[in-house]
Amino acid sequence: MFTRVPRLPSLLIIVGTLPAVKSGQIRRLGASCSETGSRYNRAMRPARNRRTDVGSPTPPATAELRSAWTGEGARPYTSKNLAAFRRALLRWYDRHRRELPWRKARDPYRIWLSEIMLQQTRVAAVVDHYRIFLKRFPNIQALAATSEDAVLAAWSGLGYYRRARMLYQCAKELVRKHCGRFPQTAEALQTLPGIGRYTAAAIASIAFAEPVAVVDGNVERVLQRLTGIDLTTPQTWQHAQALLASSRPGDFNQAMMELGATVCVPRQPRCPTCPVRKWCVTRLSNFNQGANGTITMERPASRPGGTLALNSSRRIKKEIWCVLNQRNGSIRLVQRPRKSPLMPGMWELPQLPQKRRPTWVPVAWRTFRHSITVTDYAVHVHRARTAKGKWIPVANISQFPITGLTRKILKAAGVI
Ligand code: SF4
Question: Quick one: which atom of ligand 1 is closest to the CA of 281?
């Protein structure tokens, strides 16, 4: 979720007039930035609709904002001070980056694996899974040679299992068509299963030093705040590309993401410690500063049907009853249908049919809360006998792709 900032005018790159940015065109883009930036400085007015029309002015909302975009409180990045911006960000990254296992190598296999795992998953949740997965499948050949079930089993607990399936398909294609070697450009990488624009740019820039920018949620938020503009997706990619330090593209991309993850965070950005604050149009001016010095981003007004409404009233609530049946070191599990739209082929505890619950279900051993996308589940687990499913030896359970919920319950029960 990104926090919108008030629309401010561009003193820098007028993205609406920029040509599409390709690698190798950064120098030309810098010249273009300078020309359009100075033209816009004279106008000193924001666009009426920043997304589509950079030439329709509207007055600024307050004197405070006016001073921000007339340059009294900020020195936005331009083609002239880009080098200083890049240096400041890279210096900060070199000193303050988190030590993460995938940052120790430039091996495209490891970078690809970490990027897929990090999609929609927190870093803290990924670190252990990453190590275990790598131990089991140390290279692309090992991954391609295994079965899909083995990959799902190793992925168990990370959720969003489609990622694991695409990972496996991609590994097989890499071995079959590319002799197990990754293509070295973002464009070629995007032809592989499960690799989109972001992942391709991350692999190409970090592993092969191709000067292509990445945009994830963190980078998008940083750019929105740096520019003070409600950027469209294409504009965001253009800004990211224009900023990129082509001498160290992989480090620069990671620095932008790190900045968004650790400093320019959604609710309480740490502007006083930000390495690029002197280039930031938004810095502090649009934040509320509390008595204790904490800074809070103003929340956008809740709109009917907007994000805030989705978080509260549009979430779906469901209840599930399932059975934990354990005997002689084995446990009863059922496999979901291979064609199920949700977690196909994965293993879980047997569930009680909806109609029979009220009459014969005893008191639940324990109730778990579990959320998947927009649904919040209350999961009541009973220690009871059931004929559903089959006995799986607990010692072999790591070879089975079990669902995240099943893993959570088995851990709580001390089974695994
Ligand atoms: S100064 Fe504040 S708002 Fe601007 S980029 Fe840094 S942390 Fe984000």
Answer: 4
Q: Probe ligand 1: pick from 96, 259, 274, 281, max atoms within 8 Å of CB?
A: 274
**DSSP sequence for 277-325:** GGG-SSTTTTEEE-TTS-EEEPPPPP-TTSHHHHHHTS-EEEEEEEEE-
Query: Ligand 1 pocket, 276 CB below 6 A?
Result: yes
Six token digits for residue 177: 């068509």
* 316-412 CATH, one of 3.20.20.70, 2.60.120.460, 3.40.50.1820, 3.90.79.10: 3.90.79.10
Catalytic residue from among 64, 99, 115, 298: 115
Q: Which residue has the higher pLDDT, 52 or 235?
A: 235
Domain ranges in the chain with CATH number 1.10.340.30: 82-312
Predicted confidence (pLDDT) at residue 316 exceeds the cutoff of 90: no
pLDDT score recorded for residue 353: 75
210 given a catalytic annotation: no
Over residues 351-372, the pLDDT tens digits come to: 987 655 555 556 678 889 888 7
Q: What spatial distance separates the first Cα and last Cα of the chain, rounded to whole Å?
A: 35
pLDDT 10s digits, 258-285:
999 999 999 889 998 999 998 998 876 5
Phi, psi at residue 332, to the nearest 5°? -85, 120
Q: Can you name the CATH fold of 82-312?
A: Endonuclease III; domain 1 (1.10.340)
